[in-house]
Amino acid sequence: MEILAYMGTALLYGGLAVYFWRTRWASAAAHAPSPVLSPMADHYAVFVPLALHAFLLGRSLFAPDGLHLGLGNALSAILWLTVLIYWIGNFFYRLDGLQALVLPLAAAAVILPGVMPPARALANTDLIAFKMHLLIAMLAYSLLTIASLHVLLMALIERRLHDGSVTQVLQKLPPLLTMEAMLFRIIWAGFILLTLTLGSGVVFSEELFGKAAPLNHKTVFGFLSWFIFAALLAGRHIYGWRGRMAVRWTLAGFLTLVLAYIGSKFVLEVLLGR
């Protein structure tokens, strides 16, 4: 029955993704249907699978023996936070174009805890410092995921503008300069949280093991991602980087961050079975 709940939530995410794609992105085509619901109803429709996702994630994460943050739960939590941040942000900004981008990812992520082997409970999750470290890390991943989707959307808009094929949803989005300013605000917030994540990781390691974080795959790629985002923000401030330069550096930083955490978990849990 539990796997049916995972599949049902994924289908809700996927159905909404198809709906938003057909009524927003394909609206320039003659055969494209008009939106069935009002924009506000569309917005609240996303809350249904979001709430179900939260319930399933809570059951999978929290158990009597501790916090189970394996690869499946970690990816599911990051994408849930990504949809949540986007959903809240949609109250303040016009972000209709992101629905068709983020919901398919959430649909794939929600079923991972149900199909992947369960991970053992993490040690030391009773420590406040470790809980705060995990929360900050998840928020950093989610914000930088949004930044990556945002920069891809900007690249698509710029390409459509050059081709002269601008759909209705693109016409309703803010101007590119406004979206660019929004992008760098998101990156700044994600960068600050990433800084706190790396800093709290070092402090937590010293408090628990009496030594700084070990020089391993996760640490190297984590700090490399930090340097990439720091260089991007410095280049933006000093040289006014924008456009393709912002796209390349944002995606490079995000992919490096994925290798730091998700990559190491994949190798340990899936390939090595630890």
How are the strands of the biggest sheet laid out side by side? Answer: 1-2
For the record, give the distance between the C-alpha atoms at the N and C termini, rounded to a whole number. 28 Å
Radius of gyration: 20 Å
Q: Unreliable segments (pLDDT under 50, ≥5 consecutive)?
A: none
Question: What is the helix content?
Answer: over 70%
Number of domains: 2
- Major sheet size, sense and barrel closure: 2 strands, antiparallel
Overall mean pLDDT = 82
Counting helices, strands and paired strands, the structural category is mainly alpha
The overall strand count is: 2
Number of helices: 11
What is the overall shape? flat
Strand content: under 5%
Helix and strand sequence:
HHHEEHHHHHHHH
SSE topology:
Elements: H1 2-25, H2 39-45, H3 47-61, E1 62-63, E2 66-67, H4 71-89, H5 99-110, H6 112-115, H7 128-163, H8 168-172, H9 176-209, H10 217-239, H11 244-271
Antiparallel strand pairs: 1-2
